[in-house]
Amino acid sequence: MLKADFDLAIVGGGIVGLATGLAISERSPELSIVVIEKEADVARHQTGHNSGVVHSGIYYRPGTLRARLCVEGVKLLRQFCEEQELPYDRCGKVIVATHEDELPRLETLFERGTRNGVPGIEMIGPERLREIEPQAAGVKAIWSPNTSIVDYGAIARRYAEILRERGAHFQFGSEVTGIREAEGLLRIATASGEIRSRFLINCAGLYSDEVARMAGHRPDVQVVPFRGEYYRLRPEKRELVRGMIYPVPDPAFPFLGVHLTSTVKGEVEAGPNAVFAFAREGYGWGRIAPRELAQSLRYPGVWQLARKHWRVAAFEYYRSLSKRAFVQSLQRLVPSLREEDVVKDGAGVRAQALNRDGSLVDEFVIISSRRALHVLNAPSPAATASLAIGRHLAAEMLELAAA
Fold first, then answer.
1. How far apart are CA 395 and CA 97, in angstroms?
2. Nearest-5° angle of CA 204, CA 210, CA 211?
3. Tens digits of per-residue pLDDT, 265-281?
4. In a designed cystine with 243, which of 18, 87, 91, 189 is the match (CB 3.0 to 4.6 A)?
């Protein structure tokens, strides 16, 4: 009879996997937990490339898991940061309609935020907008005074520290290469050897669908990588933005459009755009993974998406290659901004689940089996909602364990 090394293996050392470990270790401290991470430390990908915004819950369809966990997650995250003395700055955010034709979409967002229970939001006119953000231009805006900024990398590292204090084990440099069930255990093959566990939670982000396939699932969705590129304002131009200035997003996409965001480090980021990446960790144009690119191009949803939205895709590529075009998008929000006011910054890659019909999945997607949970889509606001998502996954996992 095989003996388990651990009661639970969590694949992925990002903020969602770590928060899930925290929730389970709090509810069932007797369980042994291992976090399996292919990198040398936690928070190396989506978590570490996050802009740091604590989303309030305005954007998400009322009644969805995404909306509920976002609003709940904000409260939990704020409390955690206060207890752990981590930066949590309520700088506030405006979502700005720059033309009359955007007003119906702005009204829809305000209604969503109100129904989702987002505290303190107001619909404001141009005069109030100028009081809050003197350089912003718009015909109307939503003011969200409680939208905040944090350092998600620091938060994730603190999650990891607490997990270690509770006895959790971390297996770094251990990319998962196979999963099979034998004699009532999951045998997880990794680059550093086999790990035997009674249960598994897959929070592998950009590779979550691949890990699910290793475990024998055939997901209805596929993760497609979209790179988001950033500029940052030069230090002498940071006074152009006091908090956060966002456009009204296109409802056809889960992306929020290029915007201006203050950070807890005192900088102002500009971006991101959203371009199809040629690798799951394709942080730049030169990063191409032939196998992963071929996998994306074989998926019918990619071609359906391209067919329906090729004009948008072409513009995103153009804006990626042209600083002038990028700045022109920002000038819709802040007309006084100039091309020389910004410099190139980093990039992140969003793990976006895509349906076979080309539609972008706008809800958290979690599938389960007798011994495993797989988080196949956890885009923004996953970092904001990490503690709430962790509690949700912990409750589902403990139900599996009790069955």
1. 40
2. 55
3. 999 999 999 999 999 99
4. 91
b (16+ CB within 10 A) / e for 335-355: eebeeebbeeebbbbbbbbbb
- Tokens representing 96? 């700005």
Which amino acid, residue 96?
Answer: V
Strand pairing of 33-36 and 53-54? unpaired
Q: Kindly report whether the global pTM for this prediction surpasses the value 0.85.
A: yes
Handedness of CA 320, 16, 207, 173 (dihedral sign): positive
- Summarised one tens digit per residue, pLDDT across range 286-329 is 999 999 999 999 999 999 999 999 999 999 999 999 999 999 99
- Long-range contacts of range 394-398, CB-CB < 8 Å, 24 or more positions apart? 394/20, 394/23, 394/24, 394/27, 396/366, 396/368, 397/8, 397/20, 397/24, 397/199, 397/201, 397/373, 398/24, 398/27, 398/28
Q: Where are the beta strands (DSSP E) in 191-341?
A: 193-202, 222-233, 244-247, 259-262, 268-271, 275-276
DSSP 360: B
- CA separation, residue 382 to residues 16, 54, 153, 203 (Å): 7, 10, 13, 11
